[in-house]
Structures are given as C-alpha cells and as structure tokens.
What we know:
The structure holds 2 protein chains of 2 kinds. Chain A is of the alpha/beta class.
Amino acid sequence: MKFGKSASSGVVRQENSTTPGVNAVEVTDLVKTFDSGKIRALDGVSFKVPKGQLLVIIGLSGSGKSTLLRHLNGLHLPTEGSAIVLDENVSSLSRKELRSLRRDVGFVFQQFNIVGRLTCIENVLSGALGRIWGPRISALMYSKSMRSEAIEQLERVGLADKAWQRTDTLSGGEQQRVAIARTLMQKPQIVLADEPVASLDPEISGQVMDLLVQCCIEDGITVLCSLHQVDLALGWANRLIGLRAGKIVLDTPVDESLSQEDVMVVYQQLDPEGTKTSEYLDTSETSSP
Amino acid sequence: MPNPEQISRPWTRQRSQLWFSVLAIFVLLAWSINRVDLSLGGIVEIFEGWPETQNLLSRMVPPFIPSEDFTVITKAALDTFFIAFAGTALGLVLGIPLGLLSARNIMPFAPVRAFARAIVVFSRATPALVFALCFVRLYGIGVLAGLLAIGIHSIGMIGKLITDAAEEIDPGPREGVIATGAGSLQDLYTGIWSQMVPTVISISLYRLELDFRSAPILGWVGAGGIGLILRGYAGSLRYQELLGITILIVVLVVILEILSATTRHALLGKTETDLPGKPGRMTQLFLGGTTRPGKKIADWMINKSANKEASESESQISRSLTPPWTRERIKVNSIGLIFFVLLIISVLVPDIATSRIVDGSQKLPSYIARLTPNDWSWFTDRLFSDMIDTIAIGFAATGIALLFAIPFSFLAASNTAPGRFIYLISRLFMLLVRCVPELVVAVIFVAAIGPGPKTGTLALAIGMFGFITKLFADSIEEARQGIRDGVNSTGANRLQESVTGVLPQVAPSMVSHSLYLLDVAIRSSTILGIVGGGGIGFLLMSAAKRLYFETLGGIIFCIFVVVFLVEIIATWIRRKII
Ligand SMILES: Nc1ncnc2c1ncn2[C@@H]1O[C@H](COP(=O)(O)OP(=O)(O)O)[C@@H](O)[C@H]1O
Ligand SMILES: [Mg+2]
C-alpha cells in the first residue's frame, strides 16, 4: 500500500525551481471538463518540467494523457488552472502569440496527421510554415535553403530517398518518421508526443521511439511523451508521470531505485471508495485516438 | 403455426410515413400526367396526329448543314465551346471562395456563412438560360452574356459541392498543420485545400460536362453560340438544317464528354482513393457514379505496387531539391498547361469588349432595381396556371423517365446485362441520349408535334432518362456479388436474381437518385417554355422580349421559390428514407 497513500505526498520526488527560463512547462491545478462538466478529463494536475528533460506520461486509455498534452500547445484551453509553456500562459495568448508559441512546440500525433496526398518533402516543409508568411502552393515555392533543410531532416529520419514520393504510399512507421521530420523542421524547443507509436507494430515502435528521442537529444529539445507501454519508456526517460482518471498518481525520476512495482500503481484499478480492487489491468490495451 | 403478426411486418410509424409518401407521389404523378395531357386520351391524340408528325419528321431527313453557312456555324460552335469553358472557369473562380466561406470548419462567423450560402442557393435555383435572358439585356447580345450566365449559374453547384468537400476533410492532418504554428491562410491551403484537390478536380470536370450541355441552347435567347443558328433554322422552318445542327451539337457534346472522361481518368484514375473519407451524400448524388468503391480498391492496390516500383528506380535522383520529372508529374503538368491555354483562348478569342463588361456592370444595380416588382400586378392567373404546368411537366417527365430507366439500367449494368453485346449497346445508347441537351430535344419535338406541355414533357423525359440510367446502372454495378451468389445458389433465374439479389441493395440509392432527378427535372421544366415546350418559360421569354421588367423579376422569383422548395422537400424525404 506504499504508493496508494503516497500518491498525494511521498512519490512526488521531483524538485523544480520556479525561476523564469528554467522550466519549459509549468502546469498548475489544471482542470479540464468536457460536455459541460459531465466528463472530468483532468482533475487538478500540477507539475513542472525543466528544460532538457525527457518526461514520459503513462496511464491507461482515457486517463487524460492526450488532453493534458493538447493543453500545452493550445489545442485545448483549461477549464481551471493554468498551463505555462516557455514562460507564456497558454490560455491568455492572442491568436498571433499562440501561433508563435506553436512554432516552438512541436507535436507528434498518434495518427501522424500528415497530409497523405502531398509528397514527404512538402509535409516536412509545412513544419516551416510558422517561420514564413503566406501559403505555399508547391514545394518549389519554399526557398532553396529551406528545401535543403527539409532534405536534411528527412535524412535524419532515414527517408531522404523518398522525399518526392507521396506520403500515403509509405508504411505507417515511415509516415510517422515524416511527421517527426516535420516537427524537427520547426526547430522546436519542446516536443509533445502523444502516443507516437501506438498505431505501429511492436518492432517498428522501438525504432521510431529511439529515432524520436535521439533527434530530440541531439537538438537539446525538451520532450513530453505519452505512452501506454512502460517498457518503451524506461530505457531513456529521465522522469515518469503516471495519470489515473485525470489525476497524477506517480511522479518520479527514472533511476535504479525505481522498480516495476512502483510503476504499476498507475494501472491499479480502484473502486469508488479508493480501496484497491485488483492488482493491475491489462496494459497492452490500446488507447483510443 | 406462426401467428399472423410474425408473417406480416409490423406497422411502425416510419413505415406508415414511407407508404404515405409513396402514395402521395403516385397521386401527384397521376395528376401531373393528366395535367400535361399524356393520359390515355393524350397518347391516342399523338397517334392520331402521327401521319402529320411523320410528314414533319420526313422533312428533317436527310440532315443537312448548308455549306454557305459553314463559317458562321464553325464560329458559333467555337463560341459555344468558349462560353462553356470560360463560364465554368468563372464559376470556379467565384464558387470556390463562396463554397469555402460557407463551410462550418473554415468560416466561424455564422452571418458570413449565411450570406455566402444565400448567393450559392440563388445561383443554383436559377437556370443558366434565365440568367442569359437577363444578361442579354444588360451586356448586349453575344458571347459575354452567355459566359456570365454559365459562370453565375455554375457558382451554385460548385459552391455547394465545395462546402461539402471542405466539411468532409479529415481534421487530423489539418490539426497537424495548425500545430506547427501555421497561420490561417497556410492552414487553409496546406491543411484543407491540399486534401480537397481530387474532389475539386472531379467537381470541375463534372460541371464542365454539364455546361457543355447547357451552352448550346443559350444562343436561343441571344447569348451567343450555336443556339442562335438553331433558332434561325427553327424559325424559318428549315427542318433539314435544324436536324443537321442538332446532330452537330450532339457530336460536339459527345467528343467533349469523352475528353472530360479521359482527363478525369488521367488525373484521378489513380488518386480517387484519397477522396477524404466517404464522399458526402450531396457529393455522391451530384457525382453519381464517379465514386465506385470496388474500382477504388482495385485502383488503390495497383497504385501501391506501381509506386513501390517507381520509388526503387528513382532512389538516386530523389535527393535533389526539385521534384523529379516523373511520368505522373509530366502528365499532370501538361494537362494543367492545356487547360490554361484553352482558358486563355476562350477568354481572348471571342473578342469580348472590356467596355461592355464595365458598362453592363455599372448598370447592374439599377437593372436589379427595375427587376424588383413594386406590387403584385404581375402575378396573373395565367402565370399561376403556367407555374402549375411547370411543376406538372417536371413530375410527369420524372415519372416517365423512371418507368423506362429502371428496366433499362439493368441492361446497361455489366453485372446484370444478359450479355456483353447488349451491355455495350445499352451503354452506347445511354451515352448518346445523355449527350442530347433536353432543350435541343424540345426544339425538335416542338417542330414535329407542335408546342405545349405535352411536347415539353416528352422532350424532358428523354433528357431525364439519359441522365438517370447512368446513375442507376452505376449503382447496380456497385451491388455486392456475394448476396447475388446467395440468391443464385437457390436456383433463381436471371430475372429473379436481379429482383431479389440486386434490387434491394440498390433501392435506397435509386430512391435518392430519383429524388435528385425530380429536382433536376423541375429546374429544366421552368425553361422549356422558352423554346415552346410549355410551362412558365413562355411568359418568361415574352416578358423579357417586351421589356416587362417587373414581370420578368417576378417570374424569376417564382422559379426560385419552386425550385428551392422542391430541393428542400426532396432533401427532407431523402433523409427520412436513408
Ligand atoms: N473532445 C472531447 N470531448 C469529450 N470528451 C473528451 C474529449 N477529449 C477527451 N475526452 C474524454 O476525456 C477523457 C480523457 O481522454 P484522453 O485525454 O483522450 O485520454 P488518453 O489520451 O489518456 O487515452 C476520456 O474520458 C475522454 O472520453
Ligand atoms: Mg490519447
């Protein structure tokens, strides 16, 4: 019962400073409800992420991982509380300011969210749209230096050969790599990745995850990544946050002292009174998009 | 012993509503057939008058195009092409922005959406020929009026379909673009438009085909092109020449149809798969057989393997900063170039004076003011009765067309036709019928049987028959083989198999296509009278000729109301049934 009690006190071992410029993300008492209060997706979430950290958010499907990440680049606005990203309060930004924040915050989606009809390079180039003014009708309308930058990013994800191929002719893993290249093209300070490998095969998942993390480390990017497979996270994450029913139930650095059991508290099922009813749920269950 | 309730289906509310609608439709059909004088007595009359009709018909053969008029006719035919081509382009230029502005996921402000939608609805409900009639007064006789008429009317369908296409896009990729910090125009282009491109190409080509059909008649009211010549021959009773020009028109429409189909195939044959999601109900209705799931999947698989091969052979060159000149790219670019050149020619060659555009457009506000009636004096008994005739013609023509189309479409569908030969013949026949604009048929029929609602109904029925059999045959071809095999294995013969295995599968889409047909038929019936086919068109034409502007505006308003109401009712029934 060690973790059941300590969820509110002991497990939160992370110490963070509040000086501006140190934290990439500061979330305070974040509450998000849907359907006019009927669904409480996030229920008072607070944490800080120092720059350069590699943070993994775990939790069952429906625990609020996507909702949390989507608050950090303004795809959702908080019902209560605040999300401060790169020292900007996301909910108080004008449209223009929000766009400029989004340039610094890359987002990798579970469903890739690339435009299948466009070529890979066009999708990667769309990552640079925030830097330039006005729409671009074809790849040739981007400057030459941008195009070579895009090829470089494709090179990093191993797809330079397919630059001029339509993206929907690629496999799922390749499409997600294109999406990663698009995010890198933004030159972001933070990358938010929402279950980036949940719709890929297990072997491919490992490769794509490695690639994402490696690129982000090279570029000194802060990473907040939600996953539901813990094993994928433990290899490289600095820190683990566990969500259950919209609440943080685990927040711990990843080091030798962290045991499998510590983590499994996230997957415990509790009955309404808060007493543990079963050890853990099947963690291989896929989450809904 | 099963009790009777198990044997007969229970009467649910929905079922009674359905049967009530069916009954109402039959009553309306019977009434309209009677009203247009095509009940038994009317048909007998046609047969009694047959010797005379035959006499008139025999004066049409052999069809003939006088060589001394050759240059005039060539010029008029080219003008017709230019009118249709540039008119469609104008429709796209105006219709696409209006369509985007009425899409809920693009324009958040409801008043802007409502305004854009209102323009689109008005353009759609007013036939091109009516616009032509008005524009001839404003911009003078000639190509310009026709081009503008086609363009303004095309806005309606293009705008509607563009809105549907935009609202159906996959929001995921768009979110991906927004998340990179793209601005709204960038989002519009990369996130939304690039997903819509195949649908937009489909819409444009389909609209072009329709405009090629409606352009030839515009000259009848003075709006340029071959219609003027048609009218000249009809007026001077030169029947051989009349038939000659008609055949020329049909040949031109067939050629253009084939060109458009080839272009569609070249551009979309491969990429049809990525029409985002399922095409919406309206898109499906308008485009009918252009989205065929079975074919789509096959194309998709071919496409996949083709692209794999391509990627392997091109791996060396693809690191360049410019796209490689693949076959696909060469093809798309050359088609684009051809269309661009055609557009330039269509705008420049007909020699449209800019001064006329400016002049006419300056007079537009005062012209609209003159068209707006101050009182109800224009609403005469004659007008009311002609309006009822118009509706009756639309209904009767739809009924007659369906009567022939349902059996015939089974002959024209590859999976139900009794043989390959019959199938090919039926398809060819269908293509030919579909390429005769119904107003041109009406011109010929008026010459042969004399003017009146009866003539108009028969002409319209032929046009509608061509239109609907294609839609029907295409949906029959989409019927799933599995169910038919099940029925087959019970030892059913071909007819039983069609009726039990195919009909239930296609019935919903047939009903929905039929309602769309009614919609189209009512629209056409409003203008049949311009060439003598009965209905409100006659008063419309005479009001325009005699410069009774208030009457003209009043009739346009009536047409708008009727067409709009029919569309709303048809949509409502369609939603109830599906
Ligand atoms: N747009 C939405 N409208 C209504 N409910 C939503 C919406 N997005 C998420 N939810 C609900 O919020 C809860 C958390 O969802 P989500 O953040 O997607 O969880 P996870 O990503 O961990 O699977 C779920 O109960 C989900 O049904
Ligand atoms: Mg999720």
